[in-house]
Amino acid sequence: SQQGEEDPQALSIQEGENATMNCSYKTSINNLQWYRQNSGRGLVHLILIRSNEREKHSGRLRVTLDTSKKSSSLLITASRAADTASYFCATVPYSSASKIIFGSGTRLSIRP
Amino acid sequence: NAGVMQNPRHLVRRRGQEARLRCSPMKGHSHVYWYRQLPEEGLKFMVYLQKENIIDESGMPKERFSAEFPKEGPSILRIQQVVRGDSAAYFCASSPPGGYGSSTDTQYFGPGTRLTVL
User: Fold this and answer.
1) Residue B9 and residue A25: Cα distance in Å, rounded?
2) Residue of A46, A58, A87, A99 to mutate, interface with B, max B Cβ within 10 Å
3) How confident is the model at residue A1 (pLDDT cuts 50, 70, 90)?
């Protein structure tokens, strides 16, 4: 089964609203990361949160991590049209710290 | 400071041909990772290499796929006798040298190579 499943699969909101995406995973992790991918492009690293951290901020991004529930959330505040992209959570498991395991992503659309 | 470079950006092959994808990591990075992304899906880990060594190839198909990262030059992902199911975007990422567990803290991704098999 897949590590790092995002929810929802697709999200459409009005510009200026907040967007929340969730991620669940199955095994113990070293850290969890969020990436953005614009259509047809490569991935851009957004933020990394370690297993001993609970919350992290970066500009308009806020990430939380609940290791007891094996879940994370990404909040984008005051969304902009340029935030339209796919967002992936990715986990680095303790069992194999040499690779990142990606979920299937949330496709976020911001309506002007 | 150039980022991770991949070429070609687009590659079209007919069934049975060979595909060679190249990746030049960021300057100073000695760890390279290859991922495959099918349409509407996330990235799937294929292989992790350091210079002249394959560290983890648990995501590589057993046949037709191989990867190398020579002492000099780019990392190469080679797909022999391509089939339609190989059509995907292939991404390379690199990270700086570090201790076990730290090398994957942040991976820097290239723009990808989109392989189309006719």
Assistant:
1) 32
2) A99
3) very low
